[in-house]
Design goal:
11 helices, Adenine-n6-DNA-methyltransferase TaqI, Chain A, domain 2, four-stranded antiparallel β-sheet, Restrct_endonuc_typeI_TRD_sf, 411 residues, 2 domains, alpha+beta, DNA-binding, 16 strands, 14% strand
Amino acid sequence: MKGIQVSADYGTPFLAATQVFDVRPVPRKWLSLDRTSDHAQRLVTEGTILLTCSGSVGRATLADASIANTLISHDLLRIDVNDDAQRGWVYAYLRAPTVRAMMTSAQYGHMIKHLEIGHLNALPFIEIPEGSNLQFSRMARDVVKSRNRAHELVSAAEARFEAEIGTLPDLGDGTVGFSAPSRDLFGSGRRLEAHYHNPIARSADRAVASSNRKLERLADLVEQVFIPGRFKHVYGPDGLPYLDSAQILEVAPDVEKYVLSLQGERRAGYLVEAGTLMLPCSGQLHGIIGSVVLAGEWHENKVLTNHIMRITPKQKPSIRIGYLQAVLSHPKLGRPRVLRGAYGSSVPELSTVDIENLAVPRLSAIAETEIADAMEEAATLMAHANSVEDRIAEEAELIVRSFLSAPGKAR
């Protein structure tokens, strides 16, 4: 794919292959549409099956509204089915672990693996009864519908929060140089690194402080903010599923590791309950660090890495956890404030102390409830979509294995 990178004001957003799998795809590049070769083929429609064909090949997903009007990398194959009634089954078939293994066996390349259209066309395809086709189509539509609704709810909640606090001036993307008064260098913490004083975070802090809202310390509103300690990783098929910090920010992540080395009470510290806020607390500032995810039922009974900070609500909370998620994750008024405290030159990290001391603006009960309802419903829908994705893969795998053990009709 050949294109010319321009500013966001003049370009069309572009997503790399891995970004399409993000719960919240955020473009970091914008390309000139007129100078992008075959740009019409780079855009995808809702429901299109996308398949990775470079790097970690054979991973499938369904396009939803979050990537509409966005240029998508050529490292994703687009799959358009002849019969729309079979779209759900084609997607399910590609999600089956056995079929994924067949695609992986066809890849080539020493350092970076590749999968070609010819490899995909050569895959055997199993025909199933019409009733089963309809079932998989319903599940596929459910996944896309749930994620679309979740994105709508989050956008509405963030717009409501911004309307209550105030709109920030456009300060660009933070790549332009800036200055800070010397008195700020010797305040609390004596932070000398430039990022702590960046104008985007300072502007967000000022907006919250000057919003004429009651401000409360985050630690006073929750039960606990903590990061579990390190543990020895021993994996095996009989262990609990393991999620790293990137996977909690992906749709239907590949769960390939199962932890055996945690037992009893020690294991409990690495599990989360639905309603817990999860923050990746280690990584690059332009990456996943400081993102906020509200755990749902899908996250339960899984071991989460020690690189994820946990924020647990009180038994009798004075603040809804969904509202707190909106406060911390808002792209302009929340996340810049969270990231401001990151420290470390090679791999930045967040400390629990900085998160505990964040000021939380309190709105009217009606406003907080509306924001919390939207964020919590969105989290429930995202967790539901992941559960349906798991079911799609499991049921497709049963069909594939049944076919392999008792050969039937294939094409």
